Amino acid sequence: MVKRANLRLVSQWSQQIGVVAATVLCGVAFGSPAVLANPPVQTPLESRTSAQRGLQIDAKQAEEHYKLGVELQQQGQIPQAIAEYRQALQYNPQLAAAYVNLGAALANQGNIDAAIESYEEAIRIDPDMAEAHFNLGNALITQNQMADAIAQYREAIRLKPDYAKAHYNLGNALASEKQREEAMVSWQEAIKINPEFAEAHANLGLALYQSGQRQAAIASFITARDLFRVQGNTQQADRLDQVLQKLTTSRPAVG
Question: In which pathway does it act (predicted)?
């Protein structure tokens, strides 16, 4: 058992790194935000399928509106980006990437139900688009549908095994379901893919601490702190410094 002061501090750190990024709401950590998808090259088969449905496709116009939507979304001009994605989909209703990014933009506005519908439409068009499954998982987490979110993250990983963000968010979701050991495996996999994933190191450190592996936790926290510092996230680095100061200057209580 460790001193209560240490437990309180680590609990505070858990809450501090529970801040969400974009559409993700994870109880123990930063969540990786929605990702923007790239449009696939239009294929003759895709064109024929759409034409058979009586849809007018203009791939060039669709791509132009799609690219403008991406630019606007990256600049934070969400309503304008939404308008461009909708325009792109008028020219090509089979552009799954536009549905993915439209969903991300809608989620950014807090319209989670519409975002989920958009992601599901992207998956209907292209079941093998890992980004669609990842973003759908993010949206489901905000509605506390953890089991469904976990399934979507697993599917994203099946389609894209080196998807570090999906491994990371899967770990967050598993941790929120009290599946600590499985969460640790997911965070370790994220770190294996991307050794500079600071949030994954921080979450792993917290899980190690909660598992009684004090020295391993300290090592993970140090790595996370140093990465945050290098990456310019001084706020999180400073918070980890506070955690480390407590952990390294106090001794575990006996009993």
Answer: Protein modification; protein glycosylation
